[in-house]
From TrEMBL:
InterPro entries: Acyl_CoA_acyltransferase, GNAT_dom, N-acetyltransferase
Matches recorded under PROSITE patterns: GNAT
Domain N-acetyltransferase: 17-179
Protein name: GNAT family N-acetyltransferase
Species name: Microbacterium schleiferi
Length: 188
């Protein structure tokens, strides 16, 4: 894919949060998020510990292959892992796109943390990748996630079906263009 050249990630800091690469030793902490069947309702199941470990392994492969992936989302003050957030390459129809993804510990919902983290990741993406737009791909039942995409300034571009665990799941592809992002975040 030409629009996402390999990049180097050396962490992101926001007012409340810090992002760093996930490591195998984060499995137990991240499993509090990915193993929570309420948080994972859009996936129709909470992950098993082995699936969480595989998820982290997948991100480590992405860091190696492209320089980015979903990162560990931590409380900037305490270092506690409270989720993941970052950028991956996903398919929307025939196109490969850069997507921002986020999963947050349930007890941390409702404070603006997902939007704060995702916004910093979109900033990073436009600064380090050639992508003309950044997407958020959301199951059509996942209202909280759609609201994050909307808070980022994204609009709906496409509706498509994703087949996951033998279930056809309608998804919406939200996106914001590089120009759209720049107009919302003019450089000083
Ligand atoms: C999707 C998800 C990350 C959204 O988390 P969230 O906490 O609702 O999202 P935000 O961080 O943007 O927080 C916004 C909420 O915080 C509130 N808030 C409180 N203080 C705030 C502040 N300083 N700034 C912004 N929002 C604030 C907002 O009013 C909003 O609440 P509302 O939706 O009740 O109006 C979370 O529901 C989640 O982890 N879900 C499970 C995983 C998942 O589905 N991921 C997406 C897959 S596509």
């Amino acid at each position: 894919m030409s629009q996402a050249r390999t990049a180097t990630f050396d962490g992101i800091r926001t007012p409340h949060l810090s992002l760093r690469e996930l490591m195998p030793h984060d499995t137990t902490a991240l499993h509090r998020v990915l193993g929570d069947e309420v948080a994972m309702a859009a996936y129709e199941h909470g992950f098993s510990p082995a699936e969480t470990a595989d998820w982290i392994e997948g991100q480590v492969r992405r860091y190696r292959d492209r320089g980015f992936g979903l990162w560990a989302l931590t409380d900037a003050e305490t270092g506690e892992v409270i989720g993941d957030c970052g950028l991956t390459i996903q398919r929307v129809g025939a196109a490969e796109v850069v997507e921002v993804g986020y999963h947050l510990l349930r007890e941390r919902w409702g404070h603006g943390y997902a939007t704060e983290a995702a916004s910093a990741c979109v900033d990073w993406g436009f600064a380090h990748l050639d992508a003309p737009a950044i997407y958020a791909i959301v199951r059509d039942t996942n209202l909280a996630s759609m609201n994050v995409a909307i808070r980022l300034g994204m609009t709906v571009r496409e509706r498509f079906i994703k087949r996951y665990r033998d279930i056809d799941m309608p998804h919406l592809a939200f996106a914001i263009t590089r120009e759209g992002w720049r107009s919302r975040h003019p450089s000083p």
